[in-house]
Amino acid sequence: MKLTDVTGKIKNGMWSYGPPFPEYKRTLLTQPDWVTARVWCDVFNGMNSQTGTYLETPAHYLGPDKSYNLEKVPLEKLVGIRASHIKLPRAPFLTGGRVGITREMLEEHSKNCRILENDALIFSCSWGKGWFEKSYLESSPYLTRGAMEWLIEKKPFILASDVPRWDRTDVSEGFWGDFYGADILMLAPLVNLENVGTDNLLLTVLPLNIADTSCAPCRAFITEG
After folding, report:
1. Domains of the chain: which residue ranges?
2. What is the DSSP string of 44-91?
């Protein structure tokens, strides 16, 4: 059995989505005056629901009144989920600009995957290698509308990726209503997917147990074999 941690590390100096999202910064808590021994405790400044790797429900887009928050997803549905993994090559996206992932790319590189409904569907291009690089967000691949439509057609329970920014920031591809309307959970961004196979995978996602939120940071890992 092979186990791969696909969770991005939360650390000072890591990326953030930019204002109004705060930057993460870990600081040391001041020594409590009511504790006689020296103790160490950290304060996680700037922590938000989309810090690092996070799991998200459609309520992020639709709101809790028209959807459901993360605490409503049963824990047993997030353990040992059968997963398929579409592995795209990294090289086409190393242009210094943003390159779109197309339907044709997904079709070409999914030929060895057994994609089933209600599974976790993962697509990657080894983008997690750049987790601490300046270009991580600036040059992130994005999904074209045709690619997202193809992924939605597969009817996954969770759609996951090592791509941190799924849409364009200049002119949107216009797929968010369709994606969230299909009641699919989002898991992103991941790391280490270049070390994971394409089939016979089990995904486990453990979000923080935070009330009244549509998404939260999580620990995620994949079991093979």
Report:
1. 2-9+49-224
2. EET--TTSSSEEE-THHHH-TTTS--GGGS-GGGGSSEEEEEEE--SG
